[in-house]
Amino acid sequence: MAMGEMGRGKSEAVRGEPDVDFFSMGGYAAYVWPSYGVAGVILFWLLLASWRAARVGEAEVERLRALGADPRRRAPQSGSDGPPVTGDQV
Question: Of 7, 15, 26, 64, whose CB count within 10 A is highest?
Answer without folding.
Answer: 64
